[in-house]
UniProtKB/TrEMBL annotation:
InterPro entries: Lipid/polyisoprenoid-bd_YceI, TTHA0802/YceI-like_sf
Organism: Chitinophaga agrisoli
Segment forming the signal sequence: none
Pfam families associated with the record: YceI
SUPFAM superfamilies reported for this sequence: YceI-like (SSF101874)
Stored SMART domains: YceI
Protein name as annotated: YceI family protein
Gene3D superfamilies documented for this protein: Lipid/polyisoprenoid-binding, YceI-like
Domain of life: Bacteria
């Protein structure tokens, strides 16, 4: 059994997020601070990464004042509580090969100190000493005490309703450690 550890290259890895509301959507990026992936016999066997919640950027709001206000709101206790919880974490608990480079990844996602299981499909490709992994996580924000304008907790929100699920499109580049 041959094992290889890959360190995530944070400057070549990131997460693109999308949050939706009744009247549209917002999108942006968030940085991966650090992490690693482990392969046993050329297959994903484990891994974890840390997300820097203080790095949240909004890409679709071009007015600087509005963008800063929105970023401040995402960092507030209504959403990520970035001052109290500057990081979020994901840890792989199982990786099942589906076909070719596709895996079903199961793991534990921790946001604001709250941990829940999550599963998603990921494409993992190795070329020499470099590993590329991409996957899309759909996260129910209400499980992590992000209830602001959620229809599960507030009535008569009309067009101010924010949907509970948000998407995290994860793009990881890792190199043999």
């Amino acid at each position: 059994m041959s094992a290889k550890n890959f360190a995530i290259v944070s400057t070549q890895s990131n997460i693109e997020w999308v949050g939706r509301k009744v009247t549209g959507a917002h999108n942006g990026t968030i940085a991966i601070k650090e992490g690693s992936l482990t392969l046993h016999d050329q297959q994903i066997a484990g891994g974890a990464f840390t997300i820097d919640t203080t790095s949240i950027r909004i890409l679709d709001v071009t007015d600087p004042a509005t963008n800063a206000q929105f970023a401040g709101h995402l960092a507030s206790d209504d959403f990520f509580s970035s001052e109290k919880y500057p990081t979020a974490n994901f840890e792989i608990t199982a990786a099942t090969p589906v076909n070719g480079t596709l895996y079903r990844i199961e793991g534990q996602l921790t946001i604001k100190g709250i941990t829940h299981p999550i599963a998603f499909d990921a494409n993992v490709q190795q070329q020499g000493d470099t590993l590329q992994a991409t996957g899309k996580l759909v996260v129910d924000r209400t499980k992590y005490e992000m209830k602001f304008r959620s229809g599960n907790f507030f009535q008569n929100l009309g067009d101010t309703l924010i949907y509970n699920d948000f998407d995290l499109d994860v793009h990881i580049t890792a190199k043999v450690a």
